[in-house]
Structure formats: structure tokens, C-alpha cells
Design brief:
Ribosomal Protein S8, Chain: A, domain 1; single chain; globular; alpha+beta; Hypothetical Oxidoreductase Yiak, Chain: A, domain 1; two-stranded antiparallel sheet; seven-stranded mixed sheet; 346 residues
């Protein structure tokens, strides 16, 4: 069974049935399952259906609202703020990016700041929504503090992901999606799960000494990537997604896995820029593909990879052959489905 591939449509229906059975409203069922399956498609399973068990636990504890009554506030002709009503972050951020796209069609640029939200998955999903609409997209989110300031030893910033997307003629958009820390939170959890030591230089203990035992990170902190440069980007994310939106800032953001006393209170900042306000889309494609050729020709054949290229290779493989799903994730989904006699698609 470990090597068996799963039809993604069947998996999506299974996830939706599980969510409905656990009391999630239909609007969030559809948007969150689409987000999770897309992340499984592009080879980011840590942000896919693997997150369903912990998120449904938070639903049962009343920390994720179902239904979610998100509310937009108009700030100007091109900017709005969205109160996410403590809904699923994947759902709330999708509402925000789609509204930013609507605003950009008329104004050239649309910006939506989000407060009162939760974990939103990968920023790549949202910037690809913009790219599909022929727009440049930016998506950032703050998160629970795990990262020290440059020169510090205590966690004060989240891994604070930064994502940017640009459409291509092929439909395979450029996708930049990265943590502003030396290690993404999902990668850290994988180290904790397997017990594999962290490479030296990624984290420090409270005395500033290198920390390699992932289980001891609760008493230490990750470092910003690139030292002060990574800290600066992490700070940018915190200001855009936390400070100006009214969301939680620094320790005002709660851990999805270890804090069951409050909602996440994370914030997001979503921007769409309509390329057609600058030039015809075909002219943009010509210019971008010229740049892509310049990048590709700067190294030996196949050695220069574009941001997002591996995601699209995974997507094509998984769409053609079915998804591989980790055995533990299958077991967890089966456990969630068992009380409701929902049959697994494998």
C-alpha cells in the first residue's frame, strides 16, 4: 500500500466528507480541501491533507469557527481589510486574494490585509491564484515566534513565509515561497518526528550556543536566514501581516500544535498587481520568457532551475499517476473517518 497512488479527485472527496462530518461548513470545506489537495499535488505534503487532523482538533475545541463569517472593511478604492472571524486560514486568505484580484482588475493593484485568521498553508497557493488571473501576486503571513532576531537568542518572530508569483504563458507560474528563517516550521517538525539532528548553524540555545537537537528547540530559537537580511525580511512580513492589519504581533500569535487556549490570531497581507494595466499580457510574456532564457542559459543544460519548477514537475507527475500519500497520514485520515463510516478511497 505504501507505493499505491491515489486518485486526487477521490482523495479530495474523502477529505471533504471527513470535514463535513466534523462540523465544518460547506464554504470552508470546499476552499480548504482545494488548498490541501493542491499542496499535495505540487509536492508539499506537509501543507496538504497531513494538516487535517490538527485543524479538525482545533475545530472541536472551538478554536476554528464553523461557519466563518469573514467581513471586509473598505479602506480605499484599492485596499481592504478582512476580519477572518477565526476561520481556517486557507479559506480566509483565499477570500482575501480573490478580493485583491477583483480590486486589481479595476484599480491596477489590489491589497487586502487580514486579521483574526489562522495557519494559511503555503503562500504559493495564493500567489498562483493571482498568476492564473494574469497578475503578479504577493502573499505573506506571520506565525508563532520560533526565530531569534539577528544577534538575539530568544524567539521573537515567526518563520514568516514570503511568497511571490508571476504568470507564464505555459500556465506554470513562477512561484517563490520561502521561510524567512533558516528552516521552515514544517521541516523542523519533520526533524522532530524522525529525530534527525539539525545541521549546525540553524538554531541556538538560550546561551547562543549552536543547537542541533530538534527536541530542544523549545528552549532555543531558529536563526533568520542570511543573518540580518533574513531578519529584515521577517520583520517586513511581521509589519505587513501583523502590525498594520491589527492581527497578533510576535507572541500575540498562537501555536497551532501546542496552544489550545486561544485561536492563532495570525495575519496575512495579500497583493495582486494587474499586468494589463502596465502592458498587454502578450508583451509581458515575451519579456518574461526572454528573461527566463537568459537565466537558463547561464549554466549547463538543466542546471538552472526556476522558482516553482520542481512544484510543477510534481504536479504533472501526480496529476498523471495519482498522489502518493504517507502511510501515517492515511492512518490519521482513516481514524477521523471511522466514527462516521466514511470509506477510504484506497
Amino acid at each position: 500500500m505504501a507505493g499505491e497512488r491515489i486518485n486526487s479527485v477521490a482523495l479530495g472527496a474523502y477529505v471533504q466528507d471527513i470535514m463535513r462530518a466534523h462540523g465544518v461548513d460547506e464554504e470552508q470545506v470546499l476552499s480548504v480541501s482545494a488548498n490541501m489537495i493542491w499542496n499535495d499535488w505540487v509536492g508539499r505534503p506537509n501543507y496538504g491533507t497531513a494538516r487535517l487532523p490538527i485543524q479538525l482538533e482545533r475545530v472541536q475545541r472551538g478554536l476554528l469557527n464553523c461557519p466563518c463569517r469573514a467581513r471586509f472593511e473598505v479602506l480605499s478604492s484599492s485596499t481592504q481589510c478582512l476580519d477572518g472571524d477565526t476561520g481556517f486560514g486557507q479559506h480566509v486568505a483565499a477570500l482575501g486574494m480573490r478580493r485583491a484580484i477583483e480590486l486589481a482588475r479595476s484599480e491596477g493593484v489590489g491589497v487586502v490585509g487580514v486579521r483574526n485568521s489562522n495557519f494559511f498553508g503555503t503562500g504559493a497557493y495564493f500567489v498562483h491564484l493571482a498568476a492564473e488571473a494574469g497578475m503578479l501576486g504577493l502573499a505573506v503571513s506571520n506565525s508563532v515566534p520560533r526565530v531569534a532576531a539577528h544577534g538575539g537568542v530568544r524567539p521573537v518572530l515567526g518563520t514568516n513565509p514570503f511568497a511571490f508569483g508571476a504568470p507564464r504563458r505555459t500556465g506554470r507560474s513562477l512561484l517563490v515561497d520561502m521561510a524567512t528563517s533558516t528552516l521552515a516550521g514544517s521541516t523542523l517538525r519533520e526533524h522532530v518526528r524522525t529525530g534527525e539532528p539539525l545541521p549546525e548553524g540553524l538554531a541556538v540555545d538560550r546561551e547562543g550556543r549552536p543547537l542541533t537537537d530538534p527536541h530542544k528547540l523549545a528552549d532555543g530559537a531558529l536563526l533568520p536566514f542570511g543573518g540580518p537580511k533574513g531578519m529584515a525580511l521577517g520583520l517586513l512580513v511581521e509589519i505587513l501581516s501583523g502590525v498594520i492589519t491589527g492581527a497578533g504581533v510576535a507572541h500575540g500569535v498562537a501555536s497551532m500544535y501546542s496552544d489550545f487556549t486561544r485561536s492563532g490570531n495570525s495575519g496575512h497581507f495579500l497583493l495582486a498587481l494587474d499586468i494589463s494595466h502596465w502592458m498587454p499580457l502578450e508583451a509581458y510574456f515575451e519579456r518574461l520568457e526572454s528573461l527566463v532564457m537568459t537565466l537558463k542559459s547561464s549554466g549547463a543544460d538543466g542546471q538552472v532551475r526556476l522558482p516553482g519548477e520542481i512544484r510543477w514537475r510534481n504536479y504533472d507527475d501526480n496529476m498523471a499517476n495519482g498522489l502518493r500519500l504517507d502511510g501515517k497520514v492515511r492512518e490519521q485520515l482513516e481514524e477521523l473517518a471511522r466514527p462516521y463510516a466514511i470509506p477510504a478511497p484506497w
